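#struct-pred
JK: can someone run the complex with alpha-D-galactopyranose? inputs below
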Amino acid sequence: MELLVVSLMLLLASCGLSLDNGLMKTPPMGWLAWERFRCNVDCEADPENCISERLFMDMADRLAEDGWKELGYEYVNIDDCWAAKKRDSEGRLVADPQRFPSGIKALAKYVHSKGLKLGIYGDLGTYTCGGYPGTTLDYIELDADTFASWGVDMLKLDGCYSNSSTKALGYPLMSKALNATGRRIAFSCSWPAYEGGLPPKVNYTFLGEICNLWRNYDDIDDSWESVRKIINWYSSHQDVLQPAAGPGRWNDPDMLIIGNFGLSYEQSKAQMALWAILAAPLFMSNDLRAISMKASSILQNKLLIRINQDPLGVQGRLLLKGKNNIDVWMRELSLSTMALVFFSQRTDMPYHYTTSLSQLNITAPNVFSAQDVYSEWVQRGLDIDTKFTVTINPSGVVMLYVYPERKLKRTQG
Ligand code: GLA
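RT: done, structure tokens with the ligand placed:
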């Protein structure tokens, strides 16, 4: 079997396999149903929150009307539990007729009419994680064609109910099948998350050729503990993960849970800052119909989004794991700028942290300014040896955008 897998992979590689869609040169942004709405299929008891076309139309309306779309949040993504429990007589996947009476094609049309894109979910196995029909190897082409014929723009392909060899065959095959549809469909692969997220089982070079993004690690849930666990896993393995990311190929630490129940204001700011440093996809999973101004202001912070979307596409790194429980992260950005995050994993009180760029081993242009991304406070005229102090709240961050000061030309007269 091993040999068969290897030879099939070689064959696929020699067929010019790469996912040639030119999509996601910067991390994708949008909304994804799973963390907040899960597999709630009881539309009788809970019509507003069940997985149904209404939910996705509501979210498309909110994205289009409440300023999200203009900021880049463009995907409206369906997750598990959208399908009927059985394929149709021709073997095609169909949406649950009660919850999606108009069908996915009509939903895609609606989403497109708002200037947005529609994502869908599948699973490379016998069943999806929630027990809906999966895409076994023999259904890959048919399902890719079905999604394309519906006008879908992105596919998240999960990996429940299958084994490593099926995945090793199936992910490249789906990539190829999506390419072959002629529709540009972004491809999110959950493959590495099922293989422990690390080499030698995971080959990130290969993944970057066949997927636009991939989940590496455990599911996020609505808690600070979960966010911390994810962040600490990413930093522990950054030597492997950081070089894997780049334009068109991103590590996905999972959804933004800002606007839900589990994070405080400080923790919400921390998730957003760290996801920006990680060049992570920004898929919110929250209720945009009932989101607070405070949560929206974090998710709609323009400078933060600009940092996340930096065209260089270089993922940031943890520079310093402080003994004082202050971690310092840095992301190199285009035009000789950078972002720094001071992240407190303390639980006592605001902590005054004094440092300089040289102390952090950062080389920077001669004179630079540092702008606090959340408070908009700017400190000018810093050089690499200038000491500065930031005050970081417990389980919070201070995020700085650091940019060279332009020499002002003196005008005569
Ligand atoms: C897995 C995935 C989640 C979500 C669920 C759906 O757990 O990692 O993101 O898609 O399945 O059942």
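RT: quick notes.
The first strand starts at residue 29 and ends at 32.
The chain has a mean pLDDT of 94.
JK: thanks, will look after standup
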